[in-house]
């Protein structure tokens, strides 16, 4: 029986894995210190219109997820360590830019830099975990899917600390928050510059373009990436649509930090057990179910906009239900999907395939966030219904593709 991945088991993992997990923790603390409060800064602090805020958030996500293909291919070519360190440097530059500017071009430049930094950092860490996870699984340790679940838990601990610290820093200028975040990424840079292994066993592929060509020829993977992209669009609504729902329910966004704390608590408590259950049931069951559960999260808020709850129901109930159910769906689908990427890639150009998976999601977020941002206003149910339908369509597509007699998607 494989060892069950619990937080206390982190200290028993190999040093490269522990460093990756610690880096993920610190990286998420810095990220969630700023990004959940970016929309409020853009709208309230800088006075930007809702559709402009949607574009800025979409650009941030696209510059992150959309450029993962570049970061993944660079990881395949040069290795995990140099790409990870470069990502830290770029993220520091991005937050310093956000701290120094109040103009829209400056904000766009800062958001692009912060996004591209993650496009370098995250595929590098993900590729390292994929290779180390295979070693652990082959050696009778935890499975790769369980390691990814543990990575999600560690990341969510960071997302729990980040919003709390960000909420504390709301009393000071936004630029101060950005500078604190830049300092955290400086710590990640120092740790990895000092202790990250120069070669921990990942394959150095011969060229960057070869990885891109392999991805484009892999039709099964491209179908999977297209269907999976809607989950990233759905999760991005934590930053765009959730604040609007809070405005509808309470007249302010003061509870936003609390919602991110709730999201972190759900993930920390439920991620590993749900990932273990999903691993036993298989991707053909877990993936469609995870998408269907995520669709339910949007359906609940849509119902609240069309039929307001009676007075005895707390005003934050729809938003809280959205956060809980969305993260349960993500917990079911996320680790299984990440575990599926290396087999779909044939265990070659793994970084490029992880990058392409995120890039497809980034494109979906860029297009979807612009459309949703134009439709969103307190009390509007249409954007929530559209996202519900989109997730249900992806769930159906994954179920059908997974059950094809010839080369099933998840087989």
TrEMBL record:
Start and end residues of each Major facilitator superfamily (MFS) profile domain: 16-406
Record bears the keyword Membrane: yes
Organism annotation: Kineococcus radiotolerans (strain ATCC BAA-149 / DSM 14245 / SRS30216)
Protein name per Swiss-Prot or TrEMBL: Major facilitator superfamily MFS_1
Single GO term (MF): transmembrane transporter activity
Gene Ontology cellular component list: plasma membrane
Gene3D superfamilies: MFS general substrate transporter like domains
InterPro entries found in the cross-reference section: MFS, MFS_dom, MFS_trans_sf, MFS_Transporters
Major site of localization recorded for this protein: membrane
Entries under SUPFAM superfamilies matching the protein: MFS general substrate transporter
Membrane topology (UniProt): Multi-pass membrane protein
PANTHER family: MULTIDRUG RESISTANCE PROTEIN MDTH, RESISTANCE PROTEIN MDTM, PUTATIVE-RELATED-RELATED
UniProt KW keywords: Cell membrane, Membrane, Transmembrane, Transmembrane helix, Transport
TM ranges: 20-42, 48-70, 82-100, 221-240, 255-274, 286-306, 312-333, 354-376, 382-401
Protein location: Cell membrane
Domain of life according to the entry: Bacteria
């Amino acid at each position: 029986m494989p060892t069950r991945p619990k937080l206390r088991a982190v200290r028993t993992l190999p040093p490269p894995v522990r460093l990756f997990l610690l880096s993920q923790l610190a990286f998420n603390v810095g990220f969630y210190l700023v990004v959940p409060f970016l929309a409020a800064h853009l709208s309230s602090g800088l006075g930007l219109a809702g559709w402009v805020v949607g574009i800025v958030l979409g650009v941030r996500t696209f510059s992150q997820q959309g450029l993962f293909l570049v970061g993944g291919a660079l990881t395949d070519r040069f290795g995990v360590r140099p790409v990870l360190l470069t990502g830290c440097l770029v993220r520091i530059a991005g937050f310093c830019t956000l701290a120094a500017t109040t103009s829209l071009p400056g904000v766009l430049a800062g958001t692009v830099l912060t996004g591209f930094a993650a496009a370098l950092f995250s595929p590098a860490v993900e590729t390292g975990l994929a290779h180390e996870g295979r070693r652990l699984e082959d050696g009778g340790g935890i499975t790769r899917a369980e390691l990814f679940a543990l990575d999600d838990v560690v990341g969510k601990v960071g997302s729990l600390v980040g919003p709390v610290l960000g909420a504390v820093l709301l009393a000071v200028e936004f630029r101060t928050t950005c500078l604190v975040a830049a300092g955290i990424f400086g710590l990640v840079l120092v740790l990895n510059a000092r202790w990250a292994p120069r070669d921990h066993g990942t394959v150095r592929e011969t060229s960057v373009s070869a990885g891109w060509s392999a991805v484009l020829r892999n039709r099964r993977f491209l179908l999977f990436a297209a269907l999976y992209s809607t989950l990233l669009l759905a999760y991005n609504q934590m930053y765009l649509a959730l604040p609007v729902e809070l405005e509808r329910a309470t007249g302010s966004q003061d509870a936003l930090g609390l919602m991110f704390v709730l999201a972190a608590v759900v993930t920390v408590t439920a991620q590993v057990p749900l990932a273990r259950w999903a691993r036993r049931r298989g991707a053909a069951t877990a993936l469609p179910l995870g998408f269907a559960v995520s669709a339910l999260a949007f359906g609940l808020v849509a119902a609240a906009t069309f039929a307001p709850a009676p007075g005895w129901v707390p005003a934050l109930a729809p938003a809280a239900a959205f956060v809980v159910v969305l993260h349960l769906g993500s917990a079911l689908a996320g680790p299984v999907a990440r575990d599926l990427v290396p087999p779909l890639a044939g265990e070659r150009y793994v970084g490029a395939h992880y990058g392409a998976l995120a890039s497809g999601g980034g494109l979906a977020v860029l297009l979807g966030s612009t459309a949703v941002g134009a439709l969103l206003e307190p009390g509007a149910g249409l954007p929530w219904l559209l996202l519900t339908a989109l997730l249900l369509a992806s769930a159906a597509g994954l179920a059908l593709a997974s059950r094809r007699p010839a080369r099933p998607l998840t087989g």
